[in-house]
Amino acid sequence: MVEFCFFASIVLSAFVPQLVVAQHDFPKIFSFRIDKTLLERDYRGNAAMLESLESLLAIPEIYSQIDSFLITAAASPIASVSHNEVLSIQRAEVMKHYILWKHPDFPRTHIHTSAIGIDWDGFKALVETEHDLPSRDKILMWL
Protein backbone atom coordinates (compact mmCIF):
# COMPACT_ATOMS: atom_id res chain seq x y z
CA MET A 1 0.00 0.00 0.00
CA VAL A 2 1.31 3.45 -0.89
CA GLU A 3 0.91 6.00 1.88
CA PHE A 4 0.81 9.69 1.11
CA CYS A 5 1.43 12.19 3.79
CA PHE A 6 1.17 15.82 2.69
CA PHE A 7 -2.56 15.71 2.31
CA ALA A 8 -2.93 13.95 5.64
CA SER A 9 -1.32 16.72 7.54
CA ILE A 10 -1.38 19.64 9.90
CA VAL A 11 0.06 22.97 8.86
CA LEU A 12 1.08 25.02 11.87
CA SER A 13 1.72 28.73 11.46
CA ALA A 14 2.84 31.04 14.22
CA PHE A 15 2.22 34.75 14.04
CA VAL A 16 5.53 36.28 15.04
CA PRO A 17 7.79 38.95 13.55
CA GLN A 18 8.85 38.18 9.96
CA LEU A 19 12.51 37.80 10.85
CA VAL A 20 11.66 35.01 13.28
CA VAL A 21 9.48 33.23 10.72
CA ALA A 22 12.21 33.42 8.09
CA GLN A 23 14.80 31.98 10.46
CA HIS A 24 12.67 29.06 11.62
CA ASP A 25 10.98 27.75 8.50
CA PHE A 26 7.30 28.30 9.15
CA PRO A 27 4.85 26.87 8.48
CA LYS A 28 5.55 23.51 10.11
CA ILE A 29 3.92 20.49 8.47
CA PHE A 30 3.07 17.44 10.58
CA SER A 31 1.99 14.14 9.06
CA PHE A 32 -0.57 11.58 10.16
CA ARG A 33 -1.13 8.05 9.01
CA ILE A 34 -4.09 7.67 6.71
CA ASP A 35 -7.37 7.79 8.63
CA LYS A 36 -5.58 8.32 11.99
CA THR A 37 -5.44 11.19 14.48
CA LEU A 38 -2.44 10.12 16.56
CA LEU A 39 0.49 12.54 16.24
CA GLU A 40 3.41 10.09 15.99
CA ARG A 41 6.84 11.57 16.65
CA ASP A 42 8.58 8.89 14.59
CA TYR A 43 6.30 9.10 11.56
CA ARG A 44 7.71 10.71 8.43
CA GLY A 45 9.29 14.08 9.28
CA ASN A 46 7.40 14.69 12.51
CA ALA A 47 10.44 14.29 14.78
CA ALA A 48 12.33 17.04 12.97
CA MET A 49 9.26 19.28 12.86
CA LEU A 50 8.57 18.80 16.59
CA GLU A 51 12.20 19.44 17.49
CA SER A 52 12.25 22.56 15.33
CA LEU A 53 9.03 23.82 16.90
CA GLU A 54 10.24 23.12 20.42
CA SER A 55 13.63 24.75 19.85
CA LEU A 56 11.83 27.85 18.61
CA LEU A 57 9.43 27.95 21.54
CA ALA A 58 12.31 27.43 23.99
CA ILE A 59 13.70 30.88 23.14
CA PRO A 60 12.01 33.27 25.59
CA GLU A 61 12.44 36.30 23.33
CA ILE A 62 10.60 34.50 20.54
CA TYR A 63 8.01 32.71 22.65
CA SER A 64 6.96 35.97 24.28
CA GLN A 65 6.36 37.55 20.86
CA ILE A 66 4.10 34.82 19.49
CA ASP A 67 0.67 36.31 19.12
CA SER A 68 -1.15 33.17 18.05
CA PHE A 69 -1.00 29.84 16.27
CA LEU A 70 -3.10 28.85 13.29
CA ILE A 71 -3.51 25.12 12.84
CA THR A 72 -4.86 24.02 9.47
CA ALA A 73 -5.71 20.34 9.17
CA ALA A 74 -6.46 18.23 6.13
CA ALA A 75 -7.12 14.62 5.16
CA SER A 76 -6.61 12.33 2.21
CA PRO A 77 -9.33 11.88 -0.42
CA ILE A 78 -9.90 8.25 0.55
CA ALA A 79 -13.07 8.42 2.64
CA SER A 80 -16.28 10.41 2.42
CA VAL A 81 -16.31 14.20 2.60
CA SER A 82 -18.02 14.18 6.00
CA HIS A 83 -15.55 11.62 7.38
CA ASN A 84 -12.60 13.70 6.19
CA GLU A 85 -14.05 16.86 7.70
CA VAL A 86 -14.36 15.15 11.09
CA LEU A 87 -10.86 13.68 10.74
CA SER A 88 -9.46 17.13 9.95
CA ILE A 89 -11.16 18.66 12.99
CA GLN A 90 -9.79 15.91 15.22
CA ARG A 91 -6.24 16.35 13.86
CA ALA A 92 -6.37 20.08 14.45
CA GLU A 93 -7.48 19.47 18.03
CA VAL A 94 -4.65 16.97 18.56
CA MET A 95 -2.10 19.59 17.53
CA LYS A 96 -3.76 22.23 19.70
CA HIS A 97 -3.64 19.88 22.70
CA TYR A 98 0.02 19.14 21.99
CA ILE A 99 0.90 22.84 22.11
CA LEU A 100 -1.10 23.33 25.31
CA TRP A 101 0.45 20.22 26.87
CA LYS A 102 3.97 21.46 26.14
CA HIS A 103 3.15 25.11 26.91
CA PRO A 104 0.25 25.25 29.37
CA ASP A 105 0.80 28.98 29.90
CA PHE A 106 0.05 29.82 26.25
CA PRO A 107 -3.43 31.34 25.97
CA ARG A 108 -5.87 28.71 24.74
CA THR A 109 -7.86 31.40 22.94
CA HIS A 110 -4.80 32.28 20.83
CA ILE A 111 -4.67 28.88 19.18
CA HIS A 112 -6.98 28.85 16.18
CA THR A 113 -7.92 25.77 14.22
CA SER A 114 -9.18 25.29 10.70
CA ALA A 115 -10.21 21.99 9.15
CA ILE A 116 -10.32 21.90 5.37
CA GLY A 117 -11.39 18.29 4.92
CA ILE A 118 -9.80 17.07 1.70
CA ASP A 119 -6.79 19.04 0.50
CA TRP A 120 -7.05 18.44 -3.25
CA ASP A 121 -4.31 20.96 -4.09
CA GLY A 122 -1.93 19.33 -1.63
CA PHE A 123 -2.82 15.90 -2.93
CA LYS A 124 -2.14 16.92 -6.52
CA ALA A 125 1.19 18.55 -5.57
CA LEU A 126 2.25 15.37 -3.79
CA VAL A 127 1.31 13.11 -6.70
CA GLU A 128 3.26 15.37 -9.06
CA THR A 129 6.42 14.88 -6.98
CA GLU A 130 6.01 11.10 -6.45
CA HIS A 131 7.48 9.80 -9.71
CA ASP A 132 7.45 6.13 -8.57
CA LEU A 133 3.78 6.17 -7.68
CA PRO A 134 1.84 3.37 -9.42
CA SER A 135 -0.73 4.80 -11.87
CA ARG A 136 0.64 8.30 -11.31
CA ASP A 137 -0.29 9.50 -14.81
CA LYS A 138 -3.85 8.22 -14.47
CA ILE A 139 -4.23 9.90 -11.08
CA LEU A 140 -2.96 13.19 -12.48
CA MET A 141 -5.38 12.97 -15.41
CA TRP A 142 -8.22 12.41 -12.96
CA LEU A 143 -7.15 15.41 -10.89
Walk me through what this model shows.
The protein is an alpha+beta fold and 143 residues long. The chain contains six helices and four strands, in the order βαβααβαβαα. A four-stranded mixed beta sheet has the order 2-1-3-4, covered by helices on one side. It is elongated, with a radius of gyration of 16 Å. It starts with 8 loop residues before the first strand and ends with a helix. Residues 1-8 have low confidence and may be disordered.
Helicity range:
40-55%
Mean pLDDT: 78
Low-confidence stretches: 1-8
Shape: elongated
The rounded distance between the terminal residues' Cα atoms is 20 Å
Figure out the total of helices.
Answer: 6
Cα-atom Rg, whole angstroms? 16 Å
Q: How would you classify the helix and strand content by structural class?
A: alpha+beta
Which H/E pattern describes the elements?
Answer: EHEHHEHEHH
According to DSSP, the number of beta strands is 4
Largest beta sheet: strand ordering: 2-1-3-4
**Beta-strand fraction estimate:** 15-25%
